[in-house]
Design goal:
Blueprint lengths: L7 H18 L3 H11 L4 H8 L3 H9 L6 H8 L29 H23 L1
């Protein structure tokens, strides 16, 4: 779908506010990719060429139908200095006190984890010795 080309001032404003819009809106990968591309004032063909993928692959990413590689995701974010990382999908949905702390686990939970780890390490060592 074609969109109207932005003026130089509109593009400058779009670029200047991209990071704050990404933080405020918390878009998914597909929408964020499109926001980045449009902030650069590029069509899909030119942006795909810039990041080293095909236009159909970029279109699938923007529609949420593709599973891009880490290299592709890094290339998408590179023009704005964005890097991959873990972020909370909805900051208000998971207040900090809903995530159990390690201290909140009972000692029997930790004992089961320790025993399972020890058994796994033993099995690995036993199979390696064969």
């Amino acid at each position: 779908m074609k969109y109207a080309k932005k003026s130089a001032d509109e593009l400058r404003q779009c670029r200047m506010t991209l990071i704050s819009r990404l933080e405020r809106l918390g878009p998914g990968m597909s929408q964020a990719t499109k926001m980045i591309r449009e902030s650069l004032g590029l069509n899909q063909q030119d942006f795909a060429q810039l990041i080293g993928i095909s236009k159909p692959q970029l279109a699938r990413v923007e529609r949420g139908e593709a599973n891009p590689t880490q290299d592709t995701l890094e290339a998408i974010g590179k023009p704005f200095g964005l890097v991959l990382g873990f972020v909370r999908a909805n900051r208000s949905a998971l207040p900090d006190d809903t995530v159990p702390s390690p201290q909140a686990r009972s000692s029997s939970d930790w004992e089961r984890i320790r025993l399972a780890t020890a058994e796994s390490n033993f099995d690995t060592a036993r199979h390696s010795a064969r």
